[in-house]
Sequence to fold (88 residues):
Amino acid sequence: MRNKRTFPKRLKLCGRSVRVSRMRLRRVYGDQEPGLIRLDSRLTGRKLLAALLHECIHEIDPDLSERRVEKLDANLSRALSQAGYHRD
Ligand SMILES: [Zn+2]
Fold:
């Protein structure tokens, strides 16, 4: 994963452009509203990957429960991390 200086400002999800904003967040690693994902600027490596996946999953399927989203982000980030798809 790219560092925060080169982190993408937009991602395409389900054919829609989603803005990605990195900033200092309190109490959460990230949050999401339709069309906007916010990620804590202090996150790196696998935590950043997990937070990004988490908020992307919310964007893709807003009806999934928090518990389900957490299960998906934990497992996907572990698998992608094992495959080398992040860097600190
Ligand atoms: Zn969530």
Q: What stands out?
A: Helices lie at 45-60, 66-82.
